[in-house]
Task: inverse folding
């Protein structure tokens, strides 16, 4: 079918091909341990985080270099976010939040490199991270507050008659959290990359090539913004959920 | 151009449909999930370890160090400012003292000069007084001498006159007459 499309117009549309997971070495089925292109880019993300936060700060300069400055900005950005949203007692969980943020933001930006693979465009990845947050926050809520954590669903400021109804809504919204949390990230990243690919495919038509090029540039700029904003949103939502776990009362 | 674009859009629709038929989104290929989840967890653990063992302690210590340095520098600047103020005060004090000292010395010198001057004036006054006294004495002597002379001359003249007039005058009465006359002169003529 795809071959037919090619022969009719000379255009090739494979917007989803870029997300395909393939073994890095040789062919064959993908076992749980197989090193794939996704594994490679996860490894590169780890390397970039290491270079940025460890090698970049190795001089411990009083007046920071550019790379050290970026590392310090990232640190301060997330540290203040946790402090502002969760409060002082949330700073214990700052390393976990920082881990998520660094991985997501670095993966998002690495994905913008042409020919690279975008780890965070995969639902499996974002769902696991969202579930880690969801399960972790729920356990933390019960450990910290005991059964009082259920007060999160009991809106004490609402009229008594409305409270059971609101409780049902609250419970549903609570369980929808990991879904929206993960789909939002993967969806945004995937859509942006697919749209760039579609714009790029139109470049094969001479008449619309300039327009297509302009579209690619514009979408690329847009995706730069999305790459940061989605990492920020994922992180701040994590902080908000953490706050609910530590202070469940409305 | 519009027809081309429409064709392209239709082709895109076709292609998407084809892709969906071929197996859909790679994201929904559940056979890759165990692999993705495994490597994701490995990655997250490695990132977590890098952050907690190396990056975060280092960055936090660097930030704390910087904050400390800034605070120290500000404190040092404050201290130096205080020192500068103290130095200025000391300088002003020294200046005031020097000025007072200078005034004192000037006053002392003035007083010493005044004393010397007074002494010299007093000495000069004494000398003047002594000289005046001497001069007065001399004048008095001269006057007394002059009076005597006048008496002599008056006696001589009186005798001569008496002689010329043909009288004979004894020395005692002439002397008495002259003395009486001189006394009158002295009484009315001299202030």
Result:
């Amino acid at each position: 079918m795809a071959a037919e499309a090619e022969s009719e117009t000379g255009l090739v549309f494979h917007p989803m091909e870029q997300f395909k997971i393939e073994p890095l070495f040789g062919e064959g089925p993908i076992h749980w341990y197989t090193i794939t292109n996704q594994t490679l880019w996860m490894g590169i993300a780890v390397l970039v985080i290491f270079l940025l936060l460890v090698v970049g700060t190795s001089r411990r300069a009083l007046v920071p270099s550019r790379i050290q400055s970026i590392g310090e900005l990232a640190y301060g950005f997330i540290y203040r976010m946790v402090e502002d949203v969760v409060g002082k007692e949330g700073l214990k969980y700052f390393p976990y939040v920082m881990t998520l943020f660094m991985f997501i933001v670095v993966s998002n930006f690495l994905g913008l490199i042409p020919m690279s693979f975008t780890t965070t465009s995969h639902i499996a990845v974002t769902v696991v991270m969202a579930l880690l947050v969801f399960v972790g926050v729920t356990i933390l809520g019960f450990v910290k507050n005991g059964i009082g954590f259920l007060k999160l669903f009991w809106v004490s400021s609402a009229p008594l008659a409305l409270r059971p109804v609101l409780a049902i809504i609250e419970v549903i919204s609570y369980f929808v959290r990991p879904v929206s949390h993960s789909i939002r990230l993967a969806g945004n990243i995937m859509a942006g990359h697919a749209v760039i690919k579609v714009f790029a495919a139109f470049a094969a038509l001479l008449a619309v090539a300039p327009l297509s090029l302009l579209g690619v540039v514009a979408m690329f700029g847009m995706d730069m913004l999305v790459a940061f904003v989605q990492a920020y949103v994922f992180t701040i939502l994590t902080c908000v959920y953490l706050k609910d776990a530590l202070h469940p009362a409305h | 151009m519009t027809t081309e674009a429409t064709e392209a859009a239709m082709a895109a629709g076709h292609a998407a449909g084809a892709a969906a038929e071929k197996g859909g989104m790679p994201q929904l290929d559940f056979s890759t999930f165990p692999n993705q989840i495994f490597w994701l967890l490995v990655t997250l653990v490695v990132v977590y370890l890098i952050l907690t063992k190396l990056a975060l302690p280092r960055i936090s210590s660097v930030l704390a160090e910087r904050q400390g340095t800034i605070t120290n520098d500000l404190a040092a600047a404050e201290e130096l400012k205080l020192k500068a103020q103290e130095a200025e005060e000391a300088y002003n004090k020294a200046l005031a003292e020097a000025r007072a000292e200078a005034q004192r010395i000037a006053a002392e010198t003035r007083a010493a000069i005044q004393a010397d001057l007074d002494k010299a004036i007093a000495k000069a006054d004494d000398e003047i007084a002594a000289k005046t006294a001497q001069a007065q004495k001399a004048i008095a002597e001269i006057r007394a001498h002059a009076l005597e002379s006048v008496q002599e001359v008056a006696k001589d003249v009186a005798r001569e006159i008496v002689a010329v007039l043909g009288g004979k005058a004894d020395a005692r009465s002439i002397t008495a007459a002259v003395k009486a006359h001189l006394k009158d002169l002295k009484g009315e003529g001299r202030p």
